[in-house]
Design a protein that fits this description.
This protein has four domains: 63 residues, no CATH class; 145 residues, no CATH class; 88 residues, no CATH class; 98 residues. The protein is built from eight helices and 30 strands.
């Protein structure tokens, strides 16, 4: 058998082959009757030399594999990928909005302020300086006054002590208004649903990143510890889940992405447009729809047009990637900007930011008391959000599929029923249809659990 670089690739010698060859060389040099048994001095020397030669062969194999994109890893993979312009993606932090509350207008939350999850110690740090702003005074609302989701109002349960609430769902307050109380969510007044935000009558939404990179979990309403004292700030809390960061791209992930990016050498096809857009920094999802007919289709796409549906990324960068389309093909979407071609001519390019459809879930769970964890309801919510976050545009929300995720939690005997809807307090098991221009969104702040002991 031939060894070394052959027409079929690199063939290396294993330990048995090397040892046999060294023994033969010893016999040739020192005579056929020389003692090369493992117990002899020559035999031990042969074993040492054989190990060294095998290591050399394996080193040659590693160098050879380093030039093969389907086999290489680590630094060798980075070097080969860079030849075609693919750079390994670094780890990214998780991001979240922490709402800081105070009694005063224009209290400043400096950049670098830190907040944490008390039970876990996970640290999040603000990335910009933000000033607080006064909320509306709830006592000034009259029966029938409209309130829009996201509006904030403060109450004064005792003189000089304020509580801040945010509208979860738009509506009109009751007659007379029923002052929100409590520190939870789903507080109803007329057709308005409120959630508690914190202590005070002013607030600032602070963009934060996890101090450590990677998928640092920050479930809704769990980041409540102020780690760096801030003048005037009385409380802090994240109203929504943190957006999870990523670990450094693995060898397998880099290999797949490099192969995908090689397709960007082509233009105009649906696949190449999608890959062009996916290479844009910050883009997390891309779907390309096309209408090849002579009439507007069911998604609203005009005749002979494409619609690039995108999550994340900067508008200008996405538009430039979409412009790799074929000449004469129209672009459709709810976001437009101008792209200038190499001749200096301007073109309006459109793409679509999918409409988010928030999913609310109420789980009805029976559990085994002996196995049910103290945070079982939170674990079910996290499992459902993790499952839901894998959704793409056009993927329906199915109550049975969401309920099934809870069986991963210890002690769960049954989840029946699992109510879902697009507004608080859903009351039926159903399938929520999501169009190709929509995406279902999930957050633990919109998931509740009615848990009762059961019999295993």
């Amino acid at each position: 058998m031939s060894y070394g670089l052959t027409a079929d690739g690199l063939a290396i010698q294993d330990i048995d082959t090397v040892k046999a060859r060294v023994e033969a060389d010893f016999h040739d040099a020192f005579g056929a009757d020389s003692d090369v048994t493992p117990e002899s001095v020559d035999g031990q020397l042969i074993a040492i030399l054989s190990e060294m030669y095998v290591e050399l062969w394996e080193g040659i194999q590693a160098v050879y594999a380093g030039f093969d994109p389907s086999q290489n890893s680590g630094d060798a993979q980075d070097a080969i990928a860079q030849i075609t312009g693919t750079i390994r993606e670094a780890a990214t932090p998780s991001t979240v909005i922490v709402t800081a509350c105070s009694d005063n207008d224009a209290d400043t939350v400096p950049s670098g302020s830190q907040f944490s999850i008390p039970s876990a110690g996970t640290l999040f740090e603000s990335t910009t300086s933000v000033d607080t702003g006064l909320a509306g005074e709830y006592a000034l609302l009259s029966g029938g006054d409209p309130v829009v989701a996201g509006d904030r109002y403060y109450t004064e349960p005792t003189p000089g002590v304020y509580n801040l609430y945010q509208a979860e769902v738009s509506g009109v307050v009751d007659t007379p208004p029923e002052t929100p109380t409590g520190t939870g969510t789903g507080i109803v007044d007329g057709t308005v649903t409120w959630e508690y935000v914190g202590i005070g009558r002013a607030s600032a939404d602070c963009p934060c990143e996890s101090v450590e990179t990677g998928p640092q979990q920050g479930l809704a309403r769990t980041i409540t510890q102020i780690e760096t004292p801030i003048t005037g700030i009385l409380s802090a809390m994240n109203l929504l889940d943190a957006t999870l960061g990523t670990n450094e791209e693995t060898d397998a992930e880099l290999r797949i992405r490099r192969e995908d990016e090689l397709r960007t050498a082509g233009n105009a096809t649906v696949d190449s447009i999608r890959v062009h857009v996916l290479t844009v920094s910050g883009v997390t999802m891309c779907r390309v729809l096309e209408n090849t007919t002579d009439v507007t289709d069911s998604n609203g796409l005009p005749a002979h047009s494409i619609c690039v549906v995108v999550l994340g990324g900067a508008t200008a960068d996405i538009a430039a990637a979409v412009f790799t389309k074929a000449a004469g093909i129209a672009t459709y979407g709810n976001t437009s900007t101008t792209v200038v071609d190499e001749a200096g001519d301007s073109h309006t390019v459109s793409f679509y930011r999918p409409t988010e459809v928030p999913i609310y879930i109420i789980n009805h769970v029976s559990y085994d008391v002996a196995a049910w964890p103290e945070d079982g309801a939170d674990q079910i919510a996290l499992a459902q959000v993790t499952f839901g976050d894998r959704s793409v545009t056009g993927k329906d929300a199915v109550s049975r599929a969401l309920g099934a995720q809870g069986f991963a939690v210890a002690g769960v005997l049954n989840i029946q029923p699992c109510y879902i809807g697009t507004a608080p307090a859903p009351a039926s098991e159903t399938t929520i249809t999501i169009s190709p221009l929509q995406i279902a969104t999930y957050d633990t702040s919109r998931i509740s659990c009615v848990a009762t002991p059961g019999t295993p």
